Here is the input.
Amino acid sequence: MAPFRYARVLLKLSGEALMGDAGYGIDPKVVDFLADEIKVAHDAGIEVAIVVGGGNIFRGVAASTAGMDRAQGDYIGMLATVMNALALQDSLEAHGVFTRVMSAIEMQAIAEPYIRRRAIRHLEKGRIVIFAAGTNNPYFTTDTTAALRALEIHAECIMKATKVDGVYDADPKTHPGARKFDELTYIEVLNLGLKVMDSTAISLAMDNDLPIIVFNIEQSGNIAAALRGEPVGTIVRGGAS
Here is the structure.
């Protein structure tokens, strides 16, 4: 079996990844499956940080189109990510993995405030760190949060978890002939308008040469396989291999 290629990674989970087929909210069975997959990487000695979205509960962008103030909607969305982070923490700790939730919005009764050096120290001590509440700034997505936090903690890559096995030139669920990319450059992602992460996150990764691995989180063993560099999805990086 190939050795692991990365020692410290940031896993980006969408809120939708936690709801399974329920259509809304949190599916405990799905969260349990995700915790089991993450534990495999943790038990192998990989330092894992996580950014989780909130789209399974509330989406600020969608609310703003219905008339809600965009900033207010985004703050509600940030609180949704805290709920998801606590659910994931509960499941991880039920699997015996020490976990810390760090929130960009202070709520001391349930989470630690985000402090970069403390987050790094938690990782060094073998704890999984879940970053919640985005960046505490409206108009910034959890994709951008993932890129920012990954750079702050010196992660070696972003692992972008999706429900498909990589990046395609069209939605493979509605376009059977869609072409899958094994590798892309940041510029190709931006120029082709591919929905890997938002443009701010891609630009941050590009400016700092931070690889992004896009893979199917629903396939058991994919986190470990991606960490070993196996071709389980699409990798986005600079032009040089």
Notes: The chain has one domain: 8-237. The domain at 8-237 is CATH 3.40.1160.10 (Carbamate kinase). The longest helix spans residues 70-94. Helices lie at 28-43, 60-65, 70-94, 116-124, 142-152, 186-192, 199-207, 222-227.
